[in-house]
Amino acid sequence: MASSSLPGVIAESDNGLVFACVLDGKGGAKRIGWEALDSWSAEDGPLWVHLDSAAEATHRWLEETAGLSELSRRVLLEEETRPRVLTTDDGLLAILRAVNLNAGADPDDMVALRMCVTAKRLITIRYRPVMTPRDMLSDLVDKRMGAESVPELFVRLTERLTERMNTVVVELDETLDEVEEHLEERDYGALRGQITEARQTAVGMRRYIGPQRDALARIHIERPGWLNQHLEILLRESADKLQRYIEDLDAARDRAIVIRDEISNRLAEGMNHRMYALSLIAGIFLPLGFVTGLLGVNVGGIPGVQNTMGFWITCALLVIVLIGEVYLFRKLKWF
Predict the structure, then answer these.
(1) Staple partner for 242: which of 189, 213, 297, 324, CB 3.0–4.6 Å?
(2) Which sequence ranges form a coiled-coil region, renumbered to this chain (predicted)?
(3) Using H for helix, E for strand and C for coil, what is the string for the chain?
């Protein structure tokens, strides 16, 4: 394979290679291209390679150079998969999810990051761009304040993936707080749209965070030899954070249901008030309409036809009936 250029900024995949670097054991790293990657050995230092699964070169490197088994390749290259951890002869295979921070994407449409971890090598594979590996590479190459070993790098990646979920969870709570504050404004159409979006976000994230918590817990049960006790504690902390996020998402989902029911109740109450007012109006004018309709019958014998005061007498009688109805309705406490 041809050697890729090494720009200062992190570029898009170059024939499958998003980036590769060799850790110096002091918090820094040196970026390498395909040529150096093909000739890498454990004696050269800890390796991190980040690949794009859509490129044919990625499939070929995993099979020919990385030497991964068919099972490992199939797990790492699956397009649709849930978070899980699997221990194989090739190392620890971990499929974790990250919030989708790409432009125009929904955060709950979580993107997968596939990893194969050994003591000296970390292989990460993406289907869609993931921001966390880019940030981690910047810590290594630019700031020289990154991980000093592959196990530490794996744990830091896991921590960073977990921490970024917190932003979405907090924003979800703030959205529901804002909806509750604006309930009195009666713009229920817009509020119901916000609630629906919040519920979809909570359900979408909950779908992946639960299995991801279980996957990290499985690492504690089948702890690989290269994972020391300190790093194991950090992974346990990440699992605990995921548990808290799950509880927060469940609470947010329940809050959204309660707010939706409150809006529905307010809409129903408003409709009932309007129907009640219309019923009272109809009840008041029904007798009046009956009397005027009866007097308007075009037949002989209508009282007061020959009386010049007949119209005013009729109006006075109607007013008396109206006053009597209002008094009766107030006595019945219909007003």
Answers:
(1) 213
(2) none
(3) CCCCCCCCCCCCCECCEEEEEEECCCCCEEEECHHHHHCCCHHHCCEEEEEECCCHHHHHHHHHCCCCCHHHHHHHHCCCCCCEEEEECCEEEEEEEECCCCCCCCCCCCEEEEEEECCCEEEEEECCCCHHHHHHHHHHHCCCCCCCCHHHHHHHHHHHHHHHHHHHHHHHHHHHHHHHHCHHHCCHHHHHHHHHHHHHHHHHHHHHHHHHHHHHHHHHHCCCCCCCHHHHHHHHHHHHHHHHHHHHHHHHHHHHHHHHHHHHHHHHHHHHHHHHHHHHHHHHHHHHHHHHHHHCCCCCCCCCCCCCCHHHHHHHHHHHHHHHHHHHHHHCCCC
